[in-house]
Amino acid sequence: MSQERSNFCMNGWLALVFHLLLLAANVYWFWSVIANLTQTSSVGGLLISLAGPIIAGILLLALYPAGYFMLYPNTAKVLTFFGSYAGSVRQTGFLWTNPFYEKSLMSLRLQTVQGPILKVNDKQGNPIEISAINIFHVEDTAKARFDVDNFNDYVSIQTESALRHLATNYAYDHDDSHEMTLRASVDEVSRALQSELQDRLAKAGVQVDEARITHLAYAPEIAMAMLRRQQATAVIAARKQIVDGAVSIVSSALSELSAQHVLELDNERKVAMVSNLLVVLCSESQTQPIVNTGTLYQ
Length: 298
Prior knowledge:
Elements: E1 10-11, H1 12-35, H2 43-63, E2 68-71, E3 75-81, E4 84-89, E5 93-96, E6 102-107, E7 111-114, E8 118-121, E9 127-138, H3 141-147, H4 151-167, H5 186-201, E10 206-218, H6 220-259, H7 267-282
Antiparallel strand pairs: 1-5, 2-5, 3-4, 3-6, 7-9, 8-9, 9-10
Helix pairs in contact: 1-2, 4-5, 6-7
């Protein structure tokens, strides 16, 4: 496994001043040789004398400038020397390094992978549609450059794989409120997804900053059936709340009547009163009162 390490680079402006001084010295050397040509009668001697400044000039004009480069904020350069890793540079600005280094640009900015909508089975075996977003950045440039073929493709594939695995560990929805589900436990599921992605992507030098589910729904073939089930569950819950409230009101009314001695009711009249009050309180439509002019015993 590769490990990032820093590489020293010279300030580009300082290197440029040094470069110009070397060029000036080379020009002075060249003209000094030309000025002394009168003392040399041999052509071979002339060529030998000019070889030094000519070679130095070629190196200064062709090779030295290859070491200049610029780095913008949140970018890095991965340096290799004839196939060997030589270090990484995160220092921003105008820089100069060994001209023989091969320099590969690596972005350190936040990047986003929006996964496709996947069709998988949840923990209960129900087919669902799910997708997620993964926000990450490169933490170790050496691992991202050398340990995987293409870290962007690697992140995309691992994001899809982790999401598929996560969906099979949770149910879409569940009647038990103590069990985490994909729909009800969004924050917990997102943290679990981020943790699994971090374990998978660490070998590529990637740091996961956020992972969150962006789409969640039942598959079309069972969507209508599940919708009816959810509606039935909601109706039952609403009915239960209405009945609980009605029973509380009836109980309070009977207790108040008995405590204040407004009237004495036998069990049969209490049953009739409770029945009438529950009908009035639990009915969905407006009730119509019926006046009984007789007694319960007629």
